[in-house]
Amino acid sequence: MCGRFAQYNSRDEYLQALRIEGDSIPYDPQPLARYNVSPGTRVLLLSERDEGYALDPVMWGYRPEWWEKAPLINARSETAATGKMFSKLWRSGRAIVPADGWYEWKKSGSRKQPYYIHRSDDRPLFMAAIGHAPFDTDHGQEGFVIVTASSNQGLIDIHDRRPLVFDTDAALSWINGGTRPEDAVRLAEEHALPESAFSWHPVSVKIGNPRNEGDFLIKKTDQPLL
After folding, report:
1. Catalytic-labelled residue, pool 2, 65, 68, 142
2. Is 182 a catalytic residue?
């Protein structure tokens, strides 16, 4: 599950970490400064387009016309490639969400303690996503979802699902138009970063309110609920 994440660094830093150079994407050193990215908002999404790369603001959520429930925000990597809801997106709408960390809630009875999860080396995260391409076109509520995988090791104590996070090479392969759907399945199964690549700590419950914003949201709280 991924219901909140942070995307606070600049476009430049994400592109440099991906080794993307050239004129296909305008550079911008201004930090995005989003520490509480929530579903239903527009998020910078990296995709391959016109033999280059593009960063587009795309709505986080996906609800086709026939879906009568709330928009979906995540897709399971184990079933997305073949299921009715997401197979088309898996074939032709693979993208990357550049980010700095994400939040999960650990539950115990009626209490829920949020945790901030990030790479131990503090490098950017490249979270696998699928959506309605092309992403420079408004498709209404058919935006994108973050692809998730099952958690192992210590992360499972917080939540049993986590975003599928790639390193640079796997991220670029994920969005490459020449990568076949079955190859993308193998990327998801074999090339996601392991739990040992991440660190996590409890943070303020204020992250639960999407109106709250600021770097205090990613800082360790001295008074966790659990």
Report:
1. 2
2. no
- Are the CB atoms for 70 and 110 separated by under 8 Å? no
79 token code pair: 């079933």
Does the reported pTM lie above 0.85? yes
Q: What is the pLDDT of residues 93-109, one digit of tens each?
A: 999 999 999 999 988 88
Q: Fill in the amino acid letter for 39.
A: P
Largest CA distance in the chain: 52
E strand segments, the chain? 4-7, 34-37, 42-49, 52-59, 74-76, 94-99, 101-108, 111-119, 125-131, 144-150, 161-163, 165-166, 198-202
57: DSSP letter: E
Alpha carbons 188 and 180: distance in angstroms, whole number? 13
Q: Rounded to the nearest 10 degrees, how much is the dihedral formed by the CA atoms of 183, 151, 3, 125?
A: -60
Catalytic: which of 104, 142, 195, 213?
104
Which residue intervals of 56-103 are DSSP H helices? Answer: 87-92
Among residues 61, 51, 125, 70, which one has the least CA distance to residue 89? 61
Omega of the bond leading into 194 within 30 degrees of 0 (cis): no
Active site residue 2: yes
pLDDT tens readout for residues 210-226: 999 999 999 999 989 87
Angle between helices 168-175 and 181-190 (to 10 degrees): 160
